[in-house]
């Protein structure tokens, strides 16, 4: 009886500990991990690039800096909003929260740093050239 | 001279610019401030109290009324290509050609540091158009009223001499029309129907393409080109074509 209780208890402890370890591990992973592929917005215009790597490693931002107040973590959520336009950025929303000319370069300057255009989009998705040829054949 | 040859040319600097070139731009009300990009682009700023006079014609104003012109605020272009889409739709441009397009380049801004830059291009509707000069059938001509370089498709024999002569690569052979096609500032499709803007200018979400009458001091194009201290330039000024598409930043 005593043995059995101990066993149940120990399983309980191990399970708890395991869960604790697991959630700690996840938290650490979230701190360091981010999508390595750049996010490319195609609404309302094609196309704007956002690089997690640069913003985390070079700019030193945490996930919490943008998520979930400025941007939902689910990709494409912001693009569904009608106000996801330059005007909103000038009003301090979305990227404009930092890109205000003080924290980072202002949203109404250096347009082509973020805007990669249709040409940039096509390059990333290999619309032109060999890749397209392969798709056709 | 071929465009490729021009691009290979060494930048000789503004001091070696022939005085004739300088005078041409002074006559247009512009002052040359520098030469860059392999000697193929002149930097200009507006000269106050200088009136337009072109090629011996003594004028106190621009030679056409309206004198259609476009000012391209180059650093605002984001290559969304809504202008291209609007142009294709409005003017029925086939996939293999274009009336206007966007160029892209990486400009060095520091050691190992580059910045992307987009540049919209189209027919420059030159005051001295090389394409018109070489056309053997007068299928392409300068409209006497508006200064628009137009095409009369029926007269075109498809010899493509105008394509070779154009310093701006603004012409293509349209297979369906069996003739050269090019930008005409949407004259037939929009301007003649009372629209004030070309399709590309109307479609631009970033206010890059400013279109209007350069002879009207109240127009945005006039104000931009004549704004004191604003640097305005044209592409390939050395051809002497006196283009009506101006570029600026800011």
UniProtKB/TrEMBL annotation, chain A:
Keyword GTP-binding: no
Source domain of life: Bacteria
Signal peptide per UniProt: 1-27
Record-linked Pfam families: Cytochrome_C7 (PF14522)
SUPFAM superfamilies for this protein: Multiheme cytochromes
Gene3D superfamilies: Cytochrome C3 (3.90.10.10)
Record's keyword terms, sorted: Signal
Residue ranges of domain Cytochrome c7-like in the record: 48-115
Cross-referenced NCBIfam families: nanowire_3heme
Name of protein: Class III cytochrome C family protein
Automatic annotation (TrEMBL), chain B:
Sequence ranges assigned to domain 4Fe-4S ferredoxin-type in this UniProt record: 68-99, 114-145, 147-176
A Pfam family reported for this protein in Swiss-Prot or TrEMBL: Fer4_11
UniProt xrefs under CDD domains: PsrB (cd10551)
Any GO molecular function: 4 iron, 4 sulfur cluster binding
Gene3D superfamilies: 3.30.70.20
Residues covered by region (Disordered): 1-20
Keyword annotations: 4Fe-4S, Iron, Iron-sulfur, Metal-binding
InterPro entries registered for this protein in UniProt: 4Fe4S_Fe-S-bd (IPR017896), 4Fe4S_Fe_S_CS (IPR017900), ET_IronSulfur_Cluster-Binding (IPR050954)
PANTHER family listed in its UniProt record: PROTEIN NRFC, PROTEIN NRFC HOMOLOG
Protein name: Tetrathionate reductase, 4Fe-4S ferredoxin subunit B
Species of the source: Dissulfuribacter thermophilus
């Amino acid at each position: 009886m005593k043995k059995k209780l101990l066993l149940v208890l120990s399983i309980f402890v191990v399970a708890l500990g395991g869960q604790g370890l697991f959630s700690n591990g996840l938290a650490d992973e979230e701190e360091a991990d981010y999508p390595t592929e750049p996010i490319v917005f195609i609404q309302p215009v094609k196309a704007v690039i956002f690089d997690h790597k640069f913003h985390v490693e070079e700019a030193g931002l945490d996930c919490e800096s943008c998520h979930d107040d400025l941007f939902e973590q689910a990709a494409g959520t912001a693009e569904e909003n009608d106000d996801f336009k330059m005007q909103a950025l000038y009003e301090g929303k979305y990227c404009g929260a930092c890109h205000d000319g003080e924290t980072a370069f202002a949203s109404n300057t250096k347009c082509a740093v973020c805007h990669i255009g249709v040409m940039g989009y096509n390059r990333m998705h290999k619309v032109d050239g060999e890749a397209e040829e392969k798709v056709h054949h | 001279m071929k465009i490729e040859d021009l691009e290979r040319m060494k930048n000789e600097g503004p001091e070696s610019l022939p005085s004739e070139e300088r005078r041409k731009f002074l006559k247009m009300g512009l002052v040359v401030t520098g030469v860059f990009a392999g000697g193929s682009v002149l930097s200009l700023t507006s000269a106050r109290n200088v009136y337009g006079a072109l090629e011996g014609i003594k004028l106190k104003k621009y030679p056409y009324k309206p004198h259609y012109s476009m000012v391209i605020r180059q650093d605002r272009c984001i290559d969304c290509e809504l202008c291209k889409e609007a142009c294709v739709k409005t003017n029925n441009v086939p996939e293999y050609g274009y009336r206007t397009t966007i160029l892209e380049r990486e400009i060095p801004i520091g050691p190992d540091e580059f910045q992307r830059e987009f540049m919209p291009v189209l027919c420059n509707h030159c005051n001295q158009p090389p394409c018109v000069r070489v056309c053997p059938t007068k299928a392409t001509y300068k409209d006497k009223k508006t200064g628009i370089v137009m095409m009369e498709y029926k007269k075109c024999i498809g010899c493509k001499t105008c394509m070779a002569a154009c310093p701006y690569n603004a012409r293509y052979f349209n297979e369906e029309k069996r003739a050269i096609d090019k930008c005409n500032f949407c004259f037939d499709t929009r301007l003649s129907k009372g629209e004030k803007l070309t399709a590309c200018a109307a479609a631009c979400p970033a206010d890059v393409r400013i279109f209007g009458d350069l002879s009207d001091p109240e127009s945005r194009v006039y104000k931009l080109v004549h704004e004191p201290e604003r640097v305005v330039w044209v592409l390939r000024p050395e051809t002497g074509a006196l283009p009506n598409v101006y570029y600026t930043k800011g």
